[in-house]
Design brief:
- By secondary structure, this protein is an all-alpha fold.
- The chain is built from eleven helices and no strands.
- The protein has helices at about 1-10, 15, 20-25, 30-55, 60-70, 75-105, 105-135, 195-220, 235-255, 260-265, 275-279.
Length: about 280
């Protein structure tokens, strides 16, 4: 139960509620779209790592919804192709262990379960490389242009021709962001000021460092006990480095973020008691 919830909230309750709102309002549709893609990829990574490491015994109810959620963000063809290859190999790893277990050969099944460590770690590292590239790439290399087609402007001609005998309803009124989310902008009224941009970039990397830790723990805790010694030594070293990076990025956000932005992002610094205890 804990593992399932841990994966389902792999980036914490803040991310789906707040994080995508900041760039959409202040950095524009492209950056907002990229943030949505990255967030869903991070969630799918955590679920997939736990699913593969458990040999399909855990996280199964979460897997397809996570994949569907990623697809709905409409990443670019390049991102989609990499995700597709990771999914195919994850499916193959779980199918292989399932076949061996169904054959009833206990020694072979034990060996296959031990091999889940390497399968999980390979999937884990490939997700990490993809997400690092997504964070460093330009937004139009991450999210498909079709997803961000702008709505008709206020002066666009609205057709009044009937469709199936019905007059099309008027477009919904444009919604303004809540005043408490108003952030400092550059002169001219567009884009975050330089300190806010630096803080948001650092927060994005903090979120990714935390997501890496969560995905690793989802996998490591789901592995059969016999498989743990098969994990590469560097896996645990990477985990320690990742926790150090979290502290560094958090410090950077706190140093440069304007007060209003810091107040908005500060909930992202709070870890669940279970994760704090594991650390």
């Amino acid at each position: 139960m804990f593992l399932d919830r841990f994966a389902a909230e792999v980036d914490g309750p803040l991310a789906p509620r707040i994080v995508p709102m900041v760039p959409t309002m202040q950095l524009g549709l492209w950056e907002g779209g990229r943030t949505s893609v990255v967030h869903r990829l991070q969630r799918e990574r955590g679920v997939t790592c736990g699913w593969v490491a458990s040999g399909g015994r855990a996280f199964t109810p979460l897997l397809q919804p996570a994949r569907d959620s990623t697809d709905m963000t409409q990443p670019t063809a390049a991102i989609t192709a990499v995700v597709g290859r990771i999914r195919t190999d994850a499916d193959a790893a779980v199918a292989a262990i399932t076949r061996v277990e169904q054959q009833g050969d206990a020694p072979a099944a034990e060996a296959a379960r031990a091999g889940l460590a390497l399968a999980f770690y390979d999937i884990f590292r490939r997700w990490n490389r993809l997400l690092q590239q997504a964070l460093e790439a330009s937004a139009d290399e991450v999210v498909a242009a079709a997803r961000l087609a702008p709505p008709p402007g206020p002066n666009a001609e609205v057709s009044t021709h009937s469709h199936n005998g019905q007059v099309p309803p008027p477009p919904p009124p444009e919604r303004s962001p809540p005043p408490e989310l108003s952030l400092p902008v550059l002169e001219g009224g567009s884009g975050l000021d330089p300190n806010s941009q630096t803080a948001f970039a650092a927060f994005a990397h903090l979120k990714e460092a935390t997501g890496i830790e969560r995905a690793f723990l989802c996998g490591a805790l789901a592995l059969p006990e016999a498989a743990l010694p098969r994990l590469p030594t560097r896996a645990f070293a990477d985990l320690v480095i990742g926790m150090q990076q979290q502290r560094a990025y958090e410090d950077r956000v706190k140093r440069v973020a304007p007060p209003r932005l810091l107040e908005l992002l500060s909930a992202g610094f709070v870890l669940e008691p279970e994760l704090r205890k594991l650390q």
